[in-house]
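Hi support team,

I've been running sequence recovery on a batch of backbones for a student project. Most finish fine, but this one hangs at about 90% for roughly twenty minutes before it completes. I'm not sure whether the input is malformed or the queue is just slow. I've pasted the structure tokens below so you can try to reproduce it. Let me know if you need the job ID as well.

Thanks,
M.K.
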């Protein structure tokens, strides 16, 4: 009895798979994005690879769902290639690693996300800010705010020399 029920279940699954493969795909509803379709190669003798079909998005007045809502306002700044060196790093991409005294003034040692160290003085520029002051244990950077909804256009960011876990 058990083998008979397993046989019936197996035949039912095979029939459903065969029917699903033979049925043409249903047309998408109006207003929904088209699903990606893979093309079959045109001929076996050709070495040219078929051009892949990507996802087509038709906004029709709606926002793009693949654009982050958290990082809005940064698109205009990141359109071109990034500058090399300190001028290409943002305030959030550097950390204060050391402070030196040179010619009676403090000089900071910054480490970027590129794992390179940079010697900076008051007035040096980053991609989105300017170093305002350097003391024996911290640095203040005046950062330009590029958020169109923000009322303030600049803010002070303090980088500490020895950050504790609570300060992060």
């Amino acid at each position: 009895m058990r083998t008979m029920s397993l046989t019936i279940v197996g035949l039912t699954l095979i029939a459903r798979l065969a029917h699903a493969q033979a049925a043409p795909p249903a047309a998408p509803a109006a207003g929904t994005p088209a699903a990606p379709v893979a093309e079959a190669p045109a001929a076996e003798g050709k070495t040219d690879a078929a051009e892949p079909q990507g996802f087509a998005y038709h906004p029709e007045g709606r926002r793009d769902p693949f654009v982050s809502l958290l990082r809005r306002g940064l698109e205009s700044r990141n359109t071109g290639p990034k500058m090399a060196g300190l001028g290409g790093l943002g305030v959030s991409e550097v950390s204060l690693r050391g402070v030196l005294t040179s010619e009676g003034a403090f000089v900071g040692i910054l480490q970027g996300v590129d794992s390179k160290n940079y010697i900076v003085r008051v007035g040096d520029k980053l991609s989105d800010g300017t170093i305002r002051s350097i003391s024996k244990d911290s640095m203040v950077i005046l950062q330009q705010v590029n958020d169109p909804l923000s009322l303030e256009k600049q803010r002070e960011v303090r980088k500490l020399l020895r950050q504790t876990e609570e300060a992060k």
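--
Follow-up from support: It reproduced on our side and the slowdown came from queue contention, not your input. The mean pLDDT is 75. No action needed from you.
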